[in-house]
Amino acid sequence: MRTAVLAGLILVPSYALAQPAPQDPPSAGGTAQGDLSVTIYANDLALVQDVRRLDLPAGRTRQAFADVSAAIRPETVGLAAPDATVIEQNFDYDLLSPSSLMQKAVGETITLVRTNPGTGAETTERAKVLAVNGGVVLQVGGKIEVLRDDGLPVRAIFDKVPDSLRARPTLSVSLDSRRGGARPVTLSYLSGGLGWSADYVALFDQAAGTIDVQGWVTLRNTSGTSFYNAKTLLVAGEVGAGDDGNNANVYRPRPMVRALRRAGTETAAREQLGDFYLYPLPERTTIADRQTKQVSFLDVKGAPATSGYVYRAQWNNSAEQPESASSVLTFSNAAKGGLGDALPAGTVRVYMRDARGQPQFIGENHIDHTPQGSDLAIRTGDAFDVKVQPTVTERTRLSSDRWRTAMRYTLTNAKDKPATVELVQDGVPWWWTDTRITAESLKSEHRDVNTEVWHVPVPANGTATVTATYETRY
Fold first, then answer.
1. CB–CB of 364/256 below 8 Å?
2. pLDDT tens column, 148-160
3. d(CA 92, CA 167)
C-alpha cells in the first residue's frame, strides 16, 4: 500500500457532486466580464478596467465579480458605482478542484463508491476524512484506511461544496447603495501574469543594401483568466512596479545591450503617456489564458542596411589562436533613411535569401527600448571566414609606474570579397590612470577613455595587419 495516493481519488476525474457548485451568472458570451479595457506593460503587469452593468438593490448588498484575474493584486482594486459606497471587498482565489475539495473536507463525512472490477457491482460506505497530507487518510467504520494508489475505481461523493471554494476567480464586494436600480459599475485592478514583448523579423538583402522589417507584438497571458473582446493598449517602457521589501538592498544590474550604437533624438509619431510610448491594438481582441498572441505593429520595406564585422580585443592580451570576428547588421530607425519608428525592446531575428531565393535564418539578438533616430548594430553570430588574432609583441617596464606594450593584430579574410573589420581594443584596467597610443600603423578613433577603434580593410582572400604601441601609467 502506498500513501501518496490522491491519484486514485483526486487525480482521476471520477467525482460526483451531490449538488452543483455555486456559480455567478455569466453573460451571454459565457463570461461575467463586461466592457473590458486592458493596458499591458512589458514587465509582467497589466491594468484591467472592467465596466459591468449591475442591478443593485437599495441598502447593503454583496456583489460577486467573477472572472477577474487569478493573479489580481487585491490591494490595487478600485470600484466606482454611482450612488453606492464600498464597505468591504474580498478576493476568493481558492478555486474548486479535486484537491481543494478534498482538503476542505477534512473533518467531514463523505461517501465512497467502490466498483468491483470483475462484476461491475458498486458498494457505498460513509467515511470521515481525517487528513490530506501526501495522501488521503479516512476513518471507515471503526478502522483507519489510507486510500490506495492501485488503479481500482473509486469515486467520492461530497454532500456540498464549501462556500469558500469558487469555480472561477471571484472578487466579492459589500456595497451600500443609496438607491435601487441598474447602473454601470467600473472595476479596476492591477494584475500579474500579463506581459508583452516585441519581436522583429528582418530580411536582409546584401546585394541591394536594404532590409525589410516586420515588428510583432507578442502577448502572453498566464494570469489564470481569459479576457474577452478587450480594448488592448500596450505600454513600451519600464514602469516602476515597487519592491516587495524583501530584496530592497539587492543590486540588480541591467543586462548589457550593445546593439545601440548611437541614441536617437527624434520624437516618434505615437501617443505618449509620460515617458512611455503607447501601442494600441487596432481592434478588440480576446487574450486567452495560457496563450501567446502576435499582432503586427511595424512593416517597413527597403530600409538602408549594411553588413560588417566587429572584433573586440581584451586589454593587451594575446590570443592563442585566431578568433572569429562577429557578424553585424547595421541600420537606423530614423524617419529618413531608416525604419521610422521608436522600437520597443525585443528580439531581432535576421534572415537572408539563399541562392534558390529561400529566406534562411542567420542569427538573432536583443535590442533595448530604442528611441527614433538611433543607429543599431545587431550581432548575428560569428564569422566563418573572417578571423583576428591579437598578439603582444613587446612588454617593457619603463619605470616603477610606467609600462610600454606593443600589440600586433592579424586579420584574415577567406571570402572572395573585401571586408572591413571594426577592430576594438577595450577593457583598460581600472588601476591604469593614464593610457595613450604612442605609435600605430593605422589611425584609430578614440571612442572613450577605455576604447580605441580601427576600421581595418582586409582584401579578398587576404591578410591585413595593425600595430599599436601603448604607454600606461598608474
1. no
2. 655 556 778 887 7
3. 10
Task: Show the cell assigned to 63.
Answer: 456583489
Residues for the chain: how many in total? 474
**404: in domain:** yes
Q: Which of 200, 376, 371 is closest to 270 using CA atoms?
A: 371
Q: How far apart are CA 205 and CA 219, in angstroms?
A: 29
Closest residue by Cα to residue 467 from 327, 307, 313: 313
Domain interval for residue 420: 303-473
Collapsed DSSP state (helix, strand, coil) of residue 98:
helix
For the chain, give the percent of residues with pLDDT over 70: 84
Look at residue 211 and tell me if it is in a domain. no
Coil, strand, or helix at residue 2?
coil
pLDDT tens for residues 230-270?
999 999 876 655 444 444 343 333 333 367 777 776 778 78
State the total domains in the chain: 2
Residue 46: closest CA among 187, 170, 168, 193: 193
pLDDT above 60 for 170: yes
Segment 353-362 long-range contacts (CB within 8 Å, at least 24 positions apart): 353/203, 353/205, 359/203, 362/204, 362/327
How many Å apart are CA 359 and CA 205, to the nearest integer? 10
Spell out the residues 6+ positions from residue 190 whose beta carbon is closer than 8 angstroms to its own: 45, 46, 47, 48, 72, 73, 76
What is the per-residue pLDDT for 207? 92
- C-alpha separations of 263 from 214, 223, 454 in Å: 21, 35, 21
Q: Write down which residue in 165, 191, 217 finishes a domain.
A: 191
